[in-house]
Amino acid sequence: MGDERTTELGRRLGEVRQRIDRAVSAAGRSTTPRLVVVTKFHPAADVRRLVGLGVQDVGENRDQEARAKAAEVDDASGLNWHFIGQLQSNKAKYVVRYATAVHSVDREQLVTALSTAMVREQARRQETGRPARQDLDCLIQVDLDTRPPQERPDGIGARGGVQPDGVLALAEQIAGAEGLNLRGLMAVAPLGLEPAPAFQRLRGISAALVARHPEATSISAGMSHDLEEAVAAGATHLRVGTDVLGPRPDVG
Ligand SMILES: *Cc1c(COP(=O)(O)O)cnc(C)c1O
Predict the structure, then answer these.
(1) 225 CA to middle of ligand 1, Å?
(2) Check: CATH 3.40.50.300 for 4-245?
(3) Nearest CA to ligand 1 atom 13
(4) Over residues 37-56, mean pLDDT
(5) Three-state secondary structure along the chain?
């Protein structure tokens, strides 16, 4: 698609990739984190444009919207859909149909629902002779806000996530669940606080997790305004929306 929007997306994407490369050099890292382009509120046409521009990973935070968009984008594109928003257990059965990864696993009940749904989806595919579905990559969302709930500008647990002291128990459950792969951690920097110390704390929690589960090395952190801090703290996945796609309607 040689339209104006594609040109704009290509330019913005190039700028974000440059920022990431500079942050990687500044941190003296030898690996570049994966860029997950967050396409929420933007149409499937933009997702297709991004695929054309070489994007391999997109992120969505609402099941209904993601499900509809995934249906509009060719399976053969090889695109990975990352689910990054708060997820109700009763939506697990839909999410496992299109998502490669869920970054926002934050409670036991959701692990059980995702595992059950994935096992059923894998069986369903086998019965209907469709290509096998890989196990679902799961990241545990951690609440990095150290303030008591009443002092948080965005309200009680609005950003979601398990408390740091609950990570290992949840990890144990995921590691033992059929159909799921334990991959690591995800976090959003607390609203109104410096992102750098929060992401450094996340790195410490990650080290403790990896000591028990050597495969769980992923750290999903960093958005448009704090990707540099996340790269410095060892992020393996960055979730960038606005700086690639431009502003979205102010609802999310
Ligand atoms: C929307 C969203 C992002 C992307 O945020 P931008 O500021 O637009 O880059 C990242 N992570 C989560 C969990 C989100 O909901």
Answers:
(1) 10
(2) no
(3) 84
(4) 97
(5) CCCHHHHHHHHHHHHHHHHHHHHHHHCCCCCCCEEEEECCCCCHHHHHHHHHCCCCEEEECCHHHHHHHHHHCCHHHCCEEEECCCCCHHHHHHHHHHEEEEEEECCHHHHHHHHHHHHHHHHHHHHCCCCCCCCEEEEEEECCCCCCHHHCCCCCCCCCCECHHHHHHHHHHHHCCCCEEEEEEECCCCCCCCHHHHHHHHHHHHHHHHHHCCCCCEEECCCCCCHHHHHHCCCCEEEECHHHHCCCCCCC
**Distance from Cα 223 to the centre of ligand 1, integer Å:** 6
Q: What is the pTM of this model?
A: 0.96
154-177 average pLDDT score: 88
| Residue 125 CA, ligand 1 centroid: distance in Å | 32
Instruction: Write down the domain spans for the chain.
Output: 4-245
181-207 per-position pLDDT tens digit: 999 999 999 999 999 999 999 999 999
Does pLDDT of 76 surpass 80? no
Which band of pLDDT confidence, cut at 50, 70 and 90, is reported for residue 252? very low
